[in-house]
Amino acid sequence: MSLFQVYARALQYLAVHKFRVGAIVIANIVLAAITIAEPILFGRIIDAISSQKDVAPMLLLWAGFGVFNTIAFVLVSREADRLAHGRRASLLTEAFGRIVSMPLSWHSQRGTSNALHTLLRACETLFGLWLEFMRQHLATAVALMLLIPTAFAMDVRLSLILVVLGAAYVMISKVVMSRTKEGQAAVEGHYHTVFSHVSDSISNVSVVHSYNRIEAETRELKKFTQRLLSAQYPVLDWWALASGLNRIASTISMMAILVIGTVLVQRGELGVGEVIAFIGFANLLIGRLDQMKAFATQIFEARAKLEDFFQLEDSVQDREEPADAGELKGVVGEVEFRDISFDFANSAQGVRNVSFKAKAGQTIAIVGPTGAGKTTLVNLLQRVHEPKHGQILIDGVDIATVTRKSLRRSIATVFQDAGLMNRSIGENIRLGREDASLDEVMAAAEAAAASDFIEDRLNGYDTVVGERGNRLSGGERQRVAIARAILKNAPILVLDEATSALDVETEARVKDAIDALRKDRTTFIIAHRLSTVREADLVIFMDQGRVVEMGGFHELSQSNGRFAALLRASGILTDEDVRKSLTAA
Ligand SMILES: Nc1ncnc2c1ncn2[C@@H]1O[C@H](COP(=O)(O)OP(=O)(O)OP(=O)(O)O)[C@@H](O)[C@H]1O
């Protein structure tokens, strides 16, 4: 994207509140006109003093300019602050909504902290540029536009010096921008690496402590920051050189105005006051050009951040729901996978040609070695991932044709890692159903055998659980997650290793709740503890993304296949059981 395209697109994010922005623009034009009038007035005062005229009215006018300038500046700043802060808040909310709705595969590909970093930096950048533009640079730009014609009206010869000075500034900035374009993009890349490292280490602080990684992680960060600085120094050097060259250009122009102005005064072609006004113009021009250069540097530095953000936005927009997506309603719970295949991006992992059909109300156990694709399969059912091939039908409706929202309303999931948010226990359970009463929340907790430990806590249901529920034990987290699914009361239930962290006694209590919940619901159970899948109507044994065995629990346990071998290995089935069943067959 060219610089122009980047900022044309950036403006689309800012083109709101047109009336308020218009008022700021008008105020800035007035402010700029006063800024130009001041050196002229100053020159007139000097002339009046030297010819011993009355300067009081001009001094009064000058004071009036000062008061008006101050009041207008405060009002413009206040309005600009409000506009820019408001825009930052809305941009963050809008972009957050889109990003958070992206499939998990997108997040794992993009990197959650990377996306977060891009989003926050883009919000800050757009906000900062917008604020400075409205507060300061708009007036600067208008002042520069008014200054040159005013100067030309006074004296063409001295004005040409100002034009050459302006052109020198622009040329120097252009050269520096083209020389540092790649360097600046590299700086952005290094910023991402630094941020990802910091966020990865801090979010895994227990591992960092337990494995004595504090120094090592700090060393690693130092390495990344060094790389960042190595990329950043040459860019900064170029801009420092530009400042030096600008200073030389300003000094030369100032001297030229003085020398030529003196000659013109001596020849009687120009008054002293006019030369003084021109020196004021030159000073104004230098100050404003410096401000514009600083703004141009910011615009240039922000370019890579904004491009990164636009890429993020584009990848998000591509995945929005089609307008004609239907609503999945009145689900009974028949689930069919028809030749489903899915690959993770940049990975050989996924699932291949999975087909099965489960009747409404049945329990389906998905078993198999770790990494076999069990979680991926249930994620596909919820359209966390989109299959590359095949169809998934619920009650005969292809789930690709309905909104994700309606699909997910029909499914309650207990995640492998419980998935608790840093909120109170009550709020975590209520994620199942927002409008549930406290009594309903408590009943769900009771059914999930969670009420005892919750009520033992000082703040009961108001106890805040910490990030990812880290202030609860693994078993407590799972019971809160089960209570949440119970409260949701959806026709399809997914239990992904839902009871793996529970002791035998608690698991037995929770099992009663789950058994009650399973009734009249299609339930998918993923479990390594095979005792929990005994009641399954259908067992799907997966390995390396494929279904290798499928059938009823008794049918598979009596065959001499991998499921039976696994049952024997876990002591659920003895060799004697198998021999008996084979003989009977
Ligand atoms: N986002 C991802 N990108 C690339 N590969 C992935 C991703 N998520 C999972 N995988 C890989 O896909 C395979 C299946 O993962 P999945 O989580 O479905 O296994 P699973 O059978 O549920 O394992 P477990 O019993 O250990 O939970 C694994 O090899 C895993 O490494």
How would you describe this structure to a colleague?
It is a single chain. The chain is built from 19 helices and ten strands. By secondary structure, it is an alpha/beta fold. The protein has four domains: 3-317, ABC transporter transmembrane region fold, CATH 1.20.1560; 322-410 and 491-504 and 522-551, 3-Layer(aba) Sandwich (Rossmann fold), CATH 3.40.50.300; 419-489, Rossmann fold; 553-585, no CATH class. The strands form two sheets. It has a six-stranded mixed sheet with strand order 6-7-8-3-9-10, with helices on both faces. A hairpin with a 6-residue loop joins strand 1 (335-343) and strand 2. Helix 2 packs parallel to helix 5 and helix 3 (56-100) packs antiparallel against helix 5. The longest helix has 53 residues, at 214-266. The chain is elongated, with a radius of gyration of 35 Å. The mean pLDDT is 85. It binds adenosine-5'-triphosphate. Adenosine-5'-triphosphate (ATP) is lined by residues 105, 108, 344, 347, 349, 370-376.
